[in-house]
Amino acid sequence: MMFTKRLREGVRRGEITCSVRIWTRPHVTVGKRYRMEDGEIEVDSITPIGFPDITPELARESGFLGLVDLLKVAKHGRAQIFI
Asked: How far is the C-alpha of 8 from the C-alpha of 6, rounded, in Å?
């Protein structure tokens, strides 16, 4: 599972425990472990949400400065949002 470079250390330290992904379908499976540079990350849940559900607080919990910062990195075309 890939994270933008500036978020990786926060994920490793356990400071970032959620990730907003804008995908056409989930690319991960609940319960599976995925390799990350120096270890693994386990997906414990996937929740489909809509754009109105992406709050500035959720963006910050995901390691971003705010909503605009998250969307600049995460939005790649038309898709459904997963958290």
From this structure: 6
